[in-house]
């Protein structure tokens, strides 16, 4: 399984991707986010799904970028091109993949900004090659193991959040997933893209880098639970006491 999170806020983009790969009882580590930058062309791709499909689609797309990068003046055009490569891999491999009992399930998050984009963009691409664009109303997308981190993101993240707050909330959403599922874990790759900068900064977080923050967050959660008012429970336990007299 995978944990890849893309966030779009007013000031830029934040991307987070774990590196853990599981195949049966085998566990390994591999990069799930790739960055492409040439002058005023900056984009990243995060993927979730079969590694063989991912590797092939990314390889094909890199060839397209090498040959046609100058023709992509807006990010959606590059997303369309990547979608075409996903469909190409589907034509080549989907039948045999399905016949072997697996699903053709590559999903991707593509973010960045190209020279004619008025602002930074974030897209969610599906296995069929179609996509949706992330907007201000719901400023994030998760692919892979998505359920555990969403409540925190929905409650705390907004389009007006700073990139620093977006990264903090994004990490805490990853941490919630990590402690709840054994198929998501460190190392964690982070990409930061400030609006109109045409430059992405990459950084890797290891478990030892974040252990203290994770423990502090657990302590804060425990303290917050204890501080939640209990008056609403009084009628319930009064009824319990009456029933057990």
Write the layout of secondary structure elements.
Elements: E1 3-9, E2 12-18, E3 20-23, E4 26-29, E5 33-38, E6 41-48, H1 51-68, H2 75-99, E7 107-114, E8 121-125, E9 131-133, E10 140-144, H3 150-156, H4 163-180, E11 188-194, E12 201-205, H5 207-227, H6 234-243
Antiparallel strand pairs: 1-2, 1-10, 2-11, 3-4, 5-6, 6-7, 7-8, 8-9, 11-12
Helix pairs in contact: 1-2, 3-4
Mean pLDDT over the residues? 91
* Number of alpha- plus pi-helical segments: 6
The share of residues in helices is: 40-55%
Radius of gyration (CA) equals 21 Å
Low-confidence stretches: none
* Order of the strands making up the biggest sheet: 10-1-2-11-12
Give the number of DSSP strands: 12
Please characterize this protein's 3D structure.
With 245 residues, the chain is an alpha+beta fold. The protein has helices at 51-68, 75-99, 150-156, 163-180, 207-227, 234-243, and strands at residues 3-9, 12-18, 20-23, 26-29, 33-38, 41-48, 107-114, 121-125, 131-133, 140-144, 188-194, 201-205. The chain has a 5-stranded antiparallel β-sheet. A 5-stranded antiparallel β-sheet has the order 5-6-7-8-9, covered by helices on one side. A hairpin with a 6-residue loop joins strand 11 (188-194) and strand 12 (201-205). Helix 1 packs antiparallel against helix 2 (75-99) and helix 3 runs antiparallel to helix 4 (163-180). The longest helix is centred in the middle third of the chain and has 25 residues, at 75-99. The termini are far apart.
């Amino acid at each position: 399984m995978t944990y890849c999170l893309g966030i779009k806020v007013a000031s830029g983009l934040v991307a987070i991707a774990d590196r853990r790969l599981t195949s049966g009882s085998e566990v390994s580590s591999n990069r799930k986010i790739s960055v492409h930058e040439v002058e005023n062309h900056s984009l990243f791709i995060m993927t979730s799904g079969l590694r063989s499909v991912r590797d092939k689609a990314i390889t094909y797309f890199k060839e397209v970028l090498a040959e046609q990068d100058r023709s992509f003046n807006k990010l959606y055009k590059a997303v369309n091109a990547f979608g075409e490569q996903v469909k190409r891999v589907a034509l080549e491999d989907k039948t045999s993949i399905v016949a072997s009992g697996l699903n053709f399930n590559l999903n991707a998050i593509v973010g960045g900004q190209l020279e004619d984009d008025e602002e930074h963009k974030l897209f969610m691409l599906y296995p069929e090659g179609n996509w949706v664009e992330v907007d201000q109303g719901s400023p994030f997308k998760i692919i892979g193991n998505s359920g555990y981190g969403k409540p925190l993101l929905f409650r705390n993240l907004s389009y007006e959040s700073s990139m620093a707050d977006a990264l903090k909330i994004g990490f805490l959403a990853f941490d919630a997933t990590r402690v709840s599922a054994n198929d998501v874990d460190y190392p964690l790759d982070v990409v930061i893209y400030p609006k109109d900068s045409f430059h992405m900064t990459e950084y890797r977080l290891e478990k030892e880098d974040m252990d203290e923050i994770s423990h502090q967050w657990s302590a804060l959660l425990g303290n917050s639970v204890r501080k939640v008012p209990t008056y609403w429970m009084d009628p319930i336990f009064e009824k319990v006491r009456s029933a057990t007299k």
